[in-house]
Design goal:
The protein has 7 helices and 14 strands. With 315 residues, the protein is of the alpha+beta class. It starts with 9 loop residues before the first helix and ends with a helix. Keywords: Nucleus. It holds the Pfam family Brix.
Length: 315
């Protein structure tokens, strides 16, 4: 860990102030680090993934002796020094060829990590097509039931959304939607502990497409997808999940950001507002109905009944 020291000048004070916790966080920075041994497939994958989120990423080209599953001290130092909360480590060995490790940080420590192996890769430069602009937010498509049932896939889905989330926006122009990331999970998986590798007979297919909008004769344009790259076939390997207590603290939303609850108004599953109206106790005897002579009450006393009928005849 870096030592906490008092700033000696105004520049250092501004840097430390930017690193302080905020109610509304800035866009997360990701670092891409090469291990002690890498392959050309891994190097190309690190460069292409860094290019997809080019605005908030740092790509290190020098090799580093980093093994986060064995000792995460060096990874904590790298992220703290660069003020990064996301990281990708590439390595290559006989036991784990073409290896990538996706991870997240919280409070200066590694929160969770997922290791995948690249079984098939197509770089962005190999696909001759139009590329997206820098700094654009992607759309995501997750295909497969495993993203709803498997804990490993749920974490991988959450991690990918965290990697490409970028800056929080209140609204977005339709012309700013330039590319789509499609992630498909196949097969079945057996969730494992944090220390042992997970066994899986399925794969995760990572694809990136650009959005082509053409005229449709209607108000909404016609949307077509064209493959942009990169394209990967991942196989899940080792995982390390955060403890439940730490994960709750990491995902806790400040009270100031929580929407104020309006009394007697809820939102249903579809997203429609539903209001609750509270009425007082109703007395049906005082209910105003249509006035008819046949519905008039007759007095209970017989004498009064005769007088009443006599008056009625007179009328």
């Amino acid at each position: 860990m870096l030592k906490t020291i008092k700033p000696k000048n105004a520049r250092a004070k501004r840097i430390l102030k930017k690193r302080e916790p905020k109610v509304e966080e800035n866009a997360k920075t990701a670092i891409f680090v090469r291990g002690s041994t890498t392959s050309q497939v891994v190097n190309d994958a690190l460069s292409d993934l860094c290019c997809l989120r080019r605005s908030n990423s740092i790509n290190f080209t020098k090799k580093n002796n980093i093994h986060p599953f064995d000792d995460d001290t060096s990874m904590n130092f790298f992220c703290a020094k660069n003020d990064a909360s996301l990281f990708v480590i590439g390595s290559h060995s006989k036991k784990r060829p073409h290896n990538l490790i996706f991870g997240r940080m919280f409070d200066g420590q590694v929160l969770d990590m997922i290791e995948v192996g690249i079984e098939k890769a197509i770089t962005m430069s190999e696909i001759k097509s139009q590329k997206c602009s820098v700094g654009m937010k992607p759309l995501f498509i997750f295909n497969g039931d495993l993203f709803e049932t498997s804990q490993v896939h749920k974490t991988f889905k959450n991690m990918m959304l965290d990697f490409f989330r970028g800056q929080t926006l209140e609204s977005i122009n339709i012309s700013g939607l330039e590319y789509v990331i499609s992630i498909t999970a196949t097969g079945s998986i057996v969730d494992s502990d944090s220390t042992t590798p997970s066994t899986s007979d399925g794969k995760i297919f990572f694809r990136v497409y650009t959005i082509q909008m053409t005229k449709s004769g209607q108000k909404a344009p016609r949307v077509e997808l064209e493959e942009m790259g990169p394209s990967y076939d991942f196989k899940l390997r080792r995982t390390k999940f955060a403890k439940e207590e730490v994960y709750k603290i990491a995902t806790k939303v400040p009270k100031t950001l929580k929407p104020k609850k309006v009394k007697n108004i809820d939102v249903n599953e579809i997203g429609d507002k539903v209001g609750h109206i509270h009425l007082g106790r109703q007395d049906l005897s005082k209910l105003q109905t249509r006035k008819m002579k046949g519905l008039k009450r007759i007095p209970e006393d017989d004498d009064q009944t005769e007088d009443w009928s006599h008056k009625k005849r007179k009328v």
